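Mods, move this if it's the wrong board.
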Amino acid sequence: MAMITTEQSGSDVGADGRVPDALVAAYREHGFVRVRGVLDAGQVERFRAGAEAFLEAHRGESLEKQGTFSQLVNVWQRDQTLRELTFDARIGRIAEQLAGFSLRLWHDQMLVKEPHNNAATEFHQDRPYWPHTGDRLPLSAWIALVDVPPERGCMTFLPGTQDRAGLRPQDLHEEEDLFEADPSLRWIPRVTVPLRAGDCTFHSGYTGHMALPNRTGQARLAHVTIFMDEATRYSGAGHVVTDPLGLTVGDRLDSDAFPRPWA
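Not the wrong board. Structure tokens:
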């Protein structure tokens, strides 16, 4: 597979808030794409400062308890600065351009790898964890708030795996778990995507991916906005986002908890 490359600086987002057709085609073929310069330098500084302050106040609430990373979910509901990032209209519109259909917010999250954490987030798919049914492909916008070279924990993708539905949830801490669920995935060429601060990768909910360890002295700060098909319904499975909402199996996930402010 040819590497998906662009110039090393600048932005892929046009004045109309859209990305080139070539990036849309690459996303639909490979299940992921890098979009450069989604945030400018001033936005990066502001949102990084907001993320650092929120992490300092809430690190102990992380849903991930094994130390691989810190995971703080639905920060848009608790912090005005990070809400502005989650609701950034350009990111939502790019997501809809890539998907080709209307989306809603599923949830956002901060994913932080602390300095010298030295632990990989092993290969997995996102969608098997989510209580969704009746949906087309969801996708995530993974926004780098600091430079994320390989040694700081950038992501590696398994291109073309966005059609591998039906697998059980995988263990993020077990190196072999995804490949035990589908042995054919082991032999797919892997693509590692370093990001500059302000860059973003978009990846499908079924695209296999992992994050490398952070071996540097700087925290890896990423803000992830996860989008779902506007028609998604609740499957009845447990999830930290839907458990408090009193939903019934088959309910559409279209309440104020799942907005689409970029529309």
